[in-house]
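Quick start: what a row looks like.
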Amino acid sequence: MQYLKLRNKFNNSLYYLTKKILFHYEPEKVHNNFIKIGKSLGSHKVSKEAASKLFSFENPALKQNLVGITFRNPVGLSAGFDKNAELVDLLPSIGFGFAEVGSITANPCKGNEGKRLVRLPEKKSIWVNLGLNNKGYLEIKNRIKSKKFEIPIGISVAKTNSAETVNPKIGLKDYLTTLKGMKKIGSYFTINISCPNAFGGQPFSSPELFKSLMNEIQKLKIKKPIFIKLSPDLGGKNIESILKISLKYDLSGFVCSNLTKKGKIKSGGFSGKEVEKKANLLLSKVYKFKIKNKKSWILIGSGGIFSAEDAYKKIKLGANLVQLITGMIYKGPALIGQINQGLVDLLKRDGYSNIREAVGKEHEKR
């Protein structure tokens, strides 16, 4: 325990100084350099072992088996950070229990033009307008198809950010192309119907198009779990419709949620604390619907996690697993292990022996 306290103090102090330097540079340049460094570190056994000793934390109270997949802990990396699946060898050493790569699209995409990331430290948020930039499913598939992943890797799938895919038929085909191409890679799929910074908005968040997408996905007979990533900005009736439609299909669960279009902003979306309240409300709605309809859906809570308490709140609201990006950017890679360490302490405080016992407990008080 003393070792962990000293390690946390060292990591926090080091990242405090590092962040002061990094935050003087353009965020997208910093991100791209981090990907390059991370890719290199992940390719060497010694650097991976060093990272594990510096960051990782394990405890059996955090281990779960969900939809046939073993998660060593509930803290994952959200889609949108490792867009081209370049960090999959390093992420286990940092302490993640799982990760989503992408979102991956059928065709390579450069993303949106102009400035695409802005840090908002006073709001603990980031404005994101990247626009689903990725190298396309074929290149990513060919590079990672022979890899053996140490943790569950989810493949986040979106439609290519282009004028052509605004046409529902072309957009639908785009989703299916990637799903078929990546069918044998990774532990599960997440269907991203909620990216707020792509050409044409979020058409497949409409009940009619969502149903047509589900019909076509069902025909593919995909054997691994499928999750749907929902927008925090959907109206109550729209969410209700999507959930009712989902009852008819073999879905494993939902990711709650994506970026928010908060305010009068015309492009991009906000991450971190700016989306936390909406994300938690969405999570609660989906959990209540799940319980009411006696579904075994797995819920993944995302948005605004900067501490173990933030993660635990989502778990008690109904999340089986949680994801983050922004918290790691503001507090450093040591945050992952610190959240897991903190979750164990919170479980002990509340008398739980495993993380699954805390899921949804907040609703039992009401």
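That is the whole record. The longest strand covers residues 98-104. Residues 2-22 form the longest helix (21 residues).
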